[in-house]
């Protein structure tokens, strides 16, 4: 695989807060302009992320929409091209987590998790790849898996299935897109301190104590979103051209490959 040119523009889904916001800000620090996406009810937070990126001296645009809906994902890519000049890095970060016994899992809940956590990355990969191939300058596609995509966890059956699927999608896309100078990788976080991992006992601090208990590791560590965004930062760089098809774990040692 040949080294691609310096990435210039990134698109990040689920970027209004948590890991997605951290990734968007880190990529801006790295010199990229960033198109950020999240749901319409997150518009105010998303516009705040745009302001933070602009204060760093980079261009940014907010594109509200559902990352699991085809037209909304296409609109994100089109807006990045129109406003920022292309797409060199795609980070399919948006996702949800729902816990509960497989015996109580409804079809509706299963479909919702699969729609957001699996169909969402597929659409991001699809439209980013089409644009990158059209541009002819390679690119970086990066998706959100999880340590729950590497090891089954009690009461997280649907979530685990969705994140295992991202690994398979990532490997297949890496095989297909390598000839175009496009790498495809995923990150597999452990317990990251965000609103998503907060339990009632944590309040809004998001220490993830309930999730650590589910993982059978109550004494394990959680971490801030920057442990993920720093990995994405590296994978987006030209020197990461020899890494593709990988789902890289950032979990403090909870799961070993």
Automatic annotation (TrEMBL):
InterPro entries to which the protein is assigned, alphabetical: NAD(P)-bd_dom_sf, Sc_DH/Rdtase_CS, SDR, SDR_fam
EC identifiers of the protein: 1.1.1.100
Coiled coil location: none
Gene Ontology molecular-function annotations: 3-oxoacyl-[acyl-carrier-protein] reductase (NADPH) activity
Catalytic activity: a (3R)-hydroxyacyl-[ACP] + NADP(+) = a 3-oxoacyl-[ACP] + NADPH + H(+)
GO biological process: monocarboxylic acid metabolic process
Enzyme class of the recorded protein, top EC level: oxidoreductase
Pfam families associated with the record: adh_short_C2 (PF13561)
SUPFAM superfamilies: NAD(P)-binding Rossmann-fold domains (SSF51735)
The organism's place on the tree of life at top rank: Eukaryota
Record's keyword terms, sorted: NADP
Family classification: Belongs to the short-chain dehydrogenases/reductases (SDR) family.
The protein's name: 3-oxoacyl-[acyl-carrier-protein] reductase
Organism: Piloderma croceum (strain F 1598)
């Amino acid at each position: 695989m040949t080294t691609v040119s310096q990435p210039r523009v990134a698109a990040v889904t689920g970027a209004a807060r948590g890991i997605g916001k951290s990734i968007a800000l880190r990529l801006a620090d790295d010199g990229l302009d960033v198109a950020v996406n999240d749901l319409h009810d997150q518009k105010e937070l998303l516009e705040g992320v745009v302001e933070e990126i602009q204060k760093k001296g980079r261009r940014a645009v907010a594109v509200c929409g559902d990352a699991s809906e085809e037209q909304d994902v296409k609109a994100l890519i089109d807006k990045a091209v129109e406003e920022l000049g292309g797409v060199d890095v795609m980070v399919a970060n948006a996702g949800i987590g729902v816990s509960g016994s497989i015996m109580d899992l409804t079809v509706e809940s299963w479909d919702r998790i699969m729609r957001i956590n699996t169909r969402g990355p597929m659409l991001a990969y699809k439209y980013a790849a089409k644009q990158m191939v059209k541009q002819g300058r390679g690119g970086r596609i990066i998706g959100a898996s999880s340590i729950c995509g590497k090891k089954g966890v009690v009461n997280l059956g649907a979530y685990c299935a969705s994140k295992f699927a991202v690994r398979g999608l990532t490997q297949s896309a890496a095989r297909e897109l390598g000839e175009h100078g496009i790498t495809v990788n995923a990150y597999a976080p452990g317990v990251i301190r965000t609103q998503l991992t907060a339990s009632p006992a944590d309040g809004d601090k998001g220490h993830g104590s309930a999730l650590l208990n589910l993982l059978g590791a109550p004494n394990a560590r959680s971490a801030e979103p920057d442990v993920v965004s720093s990995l994405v930062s590296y994978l987006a760089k030209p020197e990461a051209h020899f890494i593709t098809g990988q789902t890289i774990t950032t979990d403090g040692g909870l799961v070993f490959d």
